[in-house]
């Protein structure tokens, strides 16, 4: 490396410490001298821990892992996509608490025969998204593993008494979602058929799957407008609404025909509303609030805002009742992803 | 589960949400109502993120992963050991910054054919160590994976201007280590020979490998006494001293004969001082300070404290010169672990 030019090398040849030096360069754009978050950094990548100056705000922390062939396949997910999504799913959790994301630690495990430029693509994908939301990649970990595993931990902050939780829904509240649902699950369903290549999947569906956007600014607006109950839709609408019901001690009625679908989703004739109800990985916000707030919310947010049901007093199981377009109960089967199902 | 008695089940049969309920119970002892840290919790396991009240102290965050058959094998590491060690290696990083550990997020990836009681043993091993250091397990993530991967993220706090960094060594400083070195590497060397069972490895060596103790209270004393430069020995003494030299812009001389070895390590005739120099996973503290501070430090700490060398002005490569018992340069080969070496 004496000439300063580094060609792509297998990680097994490059070594951990050399790779860390390249990663420091790749994530440097997240260190924006003008940003309030960067100004707080006291110890950056390259010591035993990261360190930053504290604040009296509420401290938020979350972590999520993506595992090769469990959550993604390189057949349809690039290294850059993986970097983006690994951060996005965590940012979505910070959004779901009404917080501002600040710092990220990135743990990447991968085989020694991976090329350094693939790893750098991963960090570049993550860096682009981090820069957009002024999140600083401040540390992490690299290890060898037979299977690529990406675990990101994000720290955020929120104002006291201004956080969104799963436990704040009340009977009479409207159940509202941002954006459209089911596109990521539709992409997975299409890709599950091995005869279908990634190129044959409608681009907006594939994009929903590999490049989800966290609703951070939308969540800030919700908090400002007085909303206090939210979750991000990662397991699936029905499952995540079930979490709200459980934590809030309420029940809910969901109107399947009101669930917003993207035009591309609607255009895929063989897919049903079911994917939008029980498919996961939408990373939209699901929130509950007084119905009188909905018009203001719809006005303030720059994305679709759709009422899909209402919170009711707690009834016997199931907590969530789904009604079809005629108002009759709809059986949509087992809700949400179950990671350990074989 | 209607009778309240849950037999060990495969994760694939139990499901993620049911397992999370069992984990909440397993980690409950870390929530000690009397502890200052527990009193700060605002949102616990079971929402989108954990949340706690902030402070104006320096915020520390670190993460480390242990991967099956890369960092450990179940032939010699129990699930309880894995839980303990996964937390310990992160606590060691907080110690190396002079911080107090506060909260942990735990990401466990494992195959669906693992038993729930194995996963609970993992959390119990971690809970015992967390309770000892008043660290609260406040969230995390569970995913399926073909290979067991344990990634823990720990948050800590330190007083401003009272942190230990790698960059604060000065020429003339004594180089000091806590405890004894090489035991974990000696255990790995013995276990590497598949003819040797875990039972045949001297218990103190195996214990050093699977149940390392983080030097949190010792590090607090170092900071109080005025020490400002430290690292924990995870990669190996020579490699970690190299990190201090690089970050501090200094060189170092190490006296191999002064490196402290445990009696069990000395008793293993076929092992050489080399393991204590380049073997990793000691999780002892390596620090540099004015030689005049050493007697006070030795008096204050409840563990062995040994001067193993001295910091010198920066010279040409190598930054670290190792001398043998006659004061002659010793070639100890490639320092530290290299994760991606095949």
Task: Tell me what you see in this structure.
The structure is a homodimer of 342-residue chains. Chain A is an alpha+beta fold and 342 residues long. The first copy, chain A, folds into two domains: 11-158, 60s Ribosomal Protein L30, Chain: A, CATH 3.30.1330.10; 174-323, Phosphoribosyl-aminoimidazole Synthetase, Chain A, domain 2 (Alpha-Beta Complex), CATH 3.90.650. In chain A, 32% of the residues lie in helices and 24% in strands. Chain A has twelve helices and eleven strands. The first copy, chain A, has helices spanning 11-14, 16-26, 36-39, 79-95, 116-132, 183-192, 203-210, 216-224, 237-248, 263-266, 274-278, 294-300, and strands at 41-43, 50-67, 100-110, 136-144, 149-158, 174-178, 229-232, 251-255, 285-289, 305-312, 320-323. In chain A, strands 7-9-6-10-8-11 form a six-stranded mixed beta sheet, with helices on both faces. In chain A, strands 1-2-5-3-4 form a five-stranded mixed beta sheet. In chain A, helix 5 links the parallel strand 3 and strand 4. In chain A, helix 2 (16-26) runs parallel beside helix 5 (116-132), helix 4 packs parallel to helix 5 (116-132) and helix 6 (183-192) packs across helix 7 (203-210). The longest helix of chain A is centred in the first third of the chain and has 17 residues, at 79-95. The first copy, chain A, is globular and about 65 Å long. Chain A starts with 10 loop residues before the first helix and ends in a 19-residue tail after the last strand. Residues 1-5 of chain A have low confidence and may be disordered. Strand 2 of chain A pairs antiparallel with strand 2 (50-67) of chain B, so a sheet runs across the interface.
């Amino acid at each position: 490396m004496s000439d300063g030019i580094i060609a792509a090398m297998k990680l097994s040849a490059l070594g951990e410490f050399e790779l860390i030096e390249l990663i420091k360069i790749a994530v440097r754009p997240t260190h924006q001298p003008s940003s309030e978050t960067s100004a707080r950094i006291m110890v950056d990548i390259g010591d035993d821990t990261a360190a930053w100056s504290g604040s009296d705000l509420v401290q938020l922390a979350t972590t999520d892992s993506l595992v090769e062939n469990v959550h993604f396949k390189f057949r349809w997910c690039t290294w850059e996509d993986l970097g983006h999504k690994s951060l996005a799913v965590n940012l979505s959790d910070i959004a779901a608490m009404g917080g501002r994301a600040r710092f990220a630690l990135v743990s990447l495990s991968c085989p020694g025969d991976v090329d350094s430029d693939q790893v750098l693509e991963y960090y570049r994908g993550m860096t682009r998204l981090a820069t957009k939301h002024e999140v600083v990649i401040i540390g992490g970990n690299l290890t060898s593993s037979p299977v690529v595993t990406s675990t990101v931990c994000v720290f955020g902050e929120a104002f006291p008494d201004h956080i969104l939780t799963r436990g704040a829904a009340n009977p009479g509240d409207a159940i509202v979602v941002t954006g459209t649902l089911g596109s990521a699950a539709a992409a997975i369903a299409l890709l599950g058929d091995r005869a279908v290549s990634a190129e044959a999947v409608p681009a907006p569906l594939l994009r929903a799957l590999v490049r989800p956007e966290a609703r951070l600014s939308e969540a800030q607006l919700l908090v400002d407008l007085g909303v206090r109950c939210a979750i991000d839709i990662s397991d699936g609408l029905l499952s995540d609404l079930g979490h709200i019901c459980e934590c809030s001690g309420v029940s809910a009625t969901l109107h399947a025909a009101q669930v917003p679908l993207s035009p591309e989703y609607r255009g895929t004739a063989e897919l049903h509303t079911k994917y939008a109800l029980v498919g996961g990985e939408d990373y939209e916000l699901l929130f509950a609030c007084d119905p009188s707030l909905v018009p203001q919310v719809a006005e303030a947010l720059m994305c679709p805002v759709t009422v899909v049901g209402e919170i009711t007093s707690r009834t016997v199981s199931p907590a969530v009742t789904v009604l079809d377009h005629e108002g009759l109960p709809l059986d949509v089967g087992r809700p949400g992803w179950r990671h350990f199902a074989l």
